[in-house]
C-alpha cells in the first residue's frame, strides 16, 4: 500500500545521520509534525489511518456489509501487532503526530509508515536483504502538509542506521499522485514487478522504486 497524495517542497532538514541519532534517543525531530516510533497504544490509531487511506469504500458501506470493515480492521490490527514485536534492528513502525496548542489534540496520530529488512529474492536459500518501505499513509485532512515527507526522511535515517544506502518500495502504476510524492523524495523506477498480470490486464503494473540515500543531505 502506498500513500496517494503528493506533498509540497519542504525546507532543508537536518542530515539523516543527525536525524538517526535523534530518533535513537527518542527526541522530537525538528519537523512540521513530530515523528517517532510507534507504541502499542498507537495501534488503533494506526489502523484507522490505514483504513481511511486505503479502504475508503469499505468505510462507507451500509449494514449488513459492515462486517467487512470489522474483519479488515481486525486483520490489519493483528498484522501490525505481530510486526511490532520484531527486533528494532529489522523493523520499525513510525507515526507522525500532530503538533497543536490544544493539549487535547496534541500528539494525535495523523500518519504512519513502516520500514523493514526484506529478502531481495525470495526464491534464494540465503537471499541478501534490502531496506523496504511500506504502508505510508496520512489521514486525508492532513495531506499536502509535509507529514509524508517527514516520515520518508526518517525512514532514510533508519535505513542508514541499518547499514543500507538504498531503500525500496512498491507503488501501483495508476497511482500517479503517489509516484509524484516519491519522485519528489528522490525515488526512481527500478523495475516492473508484475508485467505478466498487467499485460493480461488483470491488474495495473506494480512498480518497484528505489532511492539512493545520501547521508549528507
TrEMBL record:
Matches recorded under PROSITE patterns: GNAT (PS51186)
Residue span, N-acetyltransferase domain: 33-214
Protein keywords: Transferase
Pfam families: Acetyltransf_1 (PF00583)
GO biological process, one term: mitotic sister chromatid cohesion
InterPro entries: Acyl_CoA_acyltransferase, GNAT_dom, N-term/lysine_N-AcTrnsfr
SUPFAM superfamilies linked to this entry: Acyl-CoA N-acyltransferases (Nat)
GO terms, molecular function: N-acetyltransferase activity
GO CC term (a single one): NatA complex
Protein name: GNAT family N-acetyltransferase
Organism of derivation: Phormidesmis priestleyi
